[in-house]
Write a structure and sequence with these properties.
The complex is a heterodimer of chains A (393) and B (513). With 393 residues, chain A is an alpha/beta fold. Chain A has 13 helices and 16 strands. Chain B has 513 residues and is of the alpha/beta class. Chain B has two domains: 276 residues, 3-Layer(aba) Sandwich (Rossmann fold); 180 residues, Pyruvate-ferredoxin oxidoreductase, PFOR, domain III (Pyruvate-ferredoxin Oxidoreductase, domain 3), CATH 3.40.920. Chain B is built from 17 helices and 15 strands. In chain B, strand 8 and strand 9 form a beta hairpin.
Amino acid sequence: MSEEKGLLTGEHYLLGDHACAEGAILAGCRFFAGYPITPATEIAERMSVRLPQIGGTYAQMEDELASMNAILGGSWAGVKSMTATSGPGFSLMMENLGLGIMLETPCVLVNIQRGGPSTGLPTLVGQQDMMQARWGSHGDYAIIALSPTSPQEIFDLTIRAFNLSEKYRLPVLVMSDAEVGHMTEKVVIPPPQEIEIINRPEVQRGDIEPDHFRIFRDSANGGEGYVSPMIKVGDGYRIHVSGLTHDERGYPAMYAEANEWNVARLMDKIHANRHDIIQVEEHDLEDAEVVVVSYGISARTSLWPIQQAREEGLKVGYLRLITVWPFPEERVRQMAKNVRALVVPELNMGQIVREVERCAAGQAEVVGVNRPGGDILEPHDVLNAIRRAAGHV
Amino acid sequence: MSSSERLRILGYEPLTESDWETGLHPMDDLLRGERLPHIWCQGCGLGTALSTFVNALQWLEKNQEWDLDKVAVVSGIGCTGRIAGYVRLDSFHTTHGRAIPFATGLKLANPELKVIVLSGDGDLAGIGGNHLIHAARRNLGITVVCVNNFIYGMTGGQVGPTTPHEARSVTSQYGNYEYPFNLPYLAAASGASFVARWTTLHARRLGWTLRDALAYPGFSFVEVIAPCSTAYARWNPDGKGLDPESLRRRGLEIMKHYQEVGRIEHDIHPKDAHIKLNEKGEMAEIVEGEFVKESRPNLQEAIDQRDVWAEKAWQRAKKALDERPDLPAQTEHIPRTEVQLGGFGGQGIMSAGKIIGRAAALYDQLESCFTQSYGPEARGGAAGSQVIIASDSIHHPHLVRPGSMIMMSQGAYSKYIPNLAPGGMLLIDSELVTLPDDHRADITTYGIPATRIAEEAGNNRAANTAMLGFWTAIVGAVSQDAMRQAVIESVPPKTVELNAKVFDIGYERGLET
């Protein structure tokens, strides 16, 4: 029962950032390394208070480069690890997000997005890092990014982010925003036995002869979902891993075929498991002529205009991307065949709308509703876009 | 004295007959033979650095019962960065400059591990310089071995943060116009508790120092001066020819030079640990030795000392959670109710808004969304907070048309009053807000001397609580019991009684209206 000590099972009135921290703790996160940045600071603050209460460690690093690296180290030591930041820090973390991807390291990176570019609007909302989340580190890789709409959901999705990261051995992004992070609502923390917690596949000391162990076992040789079991540093496997292109032992392999194998590993494990990873919320799609496709705070603020539009008699449906990356392309492609238009509200000048356009491939009209951060979308702007898309101007 | 006896005195295990018979190298256990030969040039000092390190580990295993399974090596990028790939230990070849933060995560997540960073001068003092000084400052219990060859070797010999003044390189062909770091001085000034420097010529002394450094509880820093026979030496005296024989000869010449210019001075102030060139560009002085050995709690010890505080904080949080009463949920349907609070910093505008939201969410079991105005204006100046309460889901988290307002300063009144819905209720602290002649006539205005009420009860900081009591009575969206309970659990423990009393006074005043 000692594991349950320190858990705040029950109902709380929590700041989104704090809910994120509590989700991490329930998921088993016991190491947090971070650097203060508005509007993600409260995650670090909460972790600095809570982790020492439950045998975890909080490290305030010198910058976000260090924060991202430290959680990779923490994870290899066998401890679930997390960091949290916002735009400027997210940019700095891109370097070692890449290392985390390359070393197939489970960990969670939370981005409480604010308006950008550069220092931008530290206290105000934005969703401008969605493409950076997908492509921000150099080279080819696949990523998982989840987008919550409320303190309760950032709690839930932080747990899910840990589960996915452990299951598929990669850094998972929680792409939230200043609105959700700085909003206080009721959050229910369930008893731990009611929560599914996934721990990384791991070989224990003595399971395998170290000389025969392969830290990046070739996916072609089997292994469920292309994911190789991990080790804990100190368990005697004496592994070597490198950010260089490597073979299944982790040893540098400086030739084209090795990179084909290496990159395919990173991408295939996400693609092959996309049906497990992708979650969407949808309603009113049966008769829909127009579908609002959105995520995070913009999906939430679209619900009111959707309700108004339906009251006006417009056939509007709702598709919310809980998982933004990998993008639910099959769902969007299929939907585009049956509807007149897809409306994509987001707090940037058009990022996810490009994905929607790509999948719609001309089969349905695609309309963005955009604002470069600073405030949430005005309900009437979304409503007007729906009306226009439905042909009712 | 026989040679084996001499070796034993020096701390070395002489080879046994069986070692000769098997043909194994005594370091085979700790090297990844399958990765050899290594990539380093003829004449390079890294082989010595690696074998000295391996030897120190073997000694610690034999003499101090180290479990080498618990040793992790972390390297960055560059020639030295490749060491991680040659040692048969848990080892990480990370990104350029980031070996120390990676090691920080390993060490803090599992303090039982012995974590060693082996990397080069460009990696640790150039791109990773910030991490070096901060790890030293924290006195993190790891060892950093910095192999300094005065140059960016792997990329072909560019000037770096340790290249001596006037030395030449690919990017300082006219002589280095910058000045180098004195790394022991930098590490010591940043807080490293063990600091030393040796050249690779002084392999035995380096080995002894490494044993001590590895076993040291705090942050230990060892600089190893190593020849770069290719990239550095070719641009500086004696540098011609890149064939193996020239390189090997050059490496030896550099080592011989180390012997001539090296000066061992233990315990001196590291600022006096010079590395100097003469006018010909040759090394003229290298001061080496063990400079700093200080004893102070390392980072983990300092962290562990805080456990007792964390435990106390947890007990308080647990008690607060356990003591929460069960109150009956709101049974009436509450339509979307928006409240704007305003005042100046320090009046508890944020806490007041949060109390309303908390009462509604936790006790009346309503939906409730609380937000506050952030930004420079919220620090000491005008402060604003917003709450939305409803029986149904709150899709739009911002106020659209607040039906009530709690205003505790003139500035906040002026800022927010235009937004109040027609027919809405305005509640002001009557001694802090003066209504102008053109005050809105389409709303209901209530005023109470909240600050004075609180003052008379014993503390003017409870003024916001008086306002909350009054607001509860006149608006009626949140029940009195829920509000009172939310006040009690939100204020400092010593002021619970006072706040409860002030809340009741405010509530009574509201009912009287």
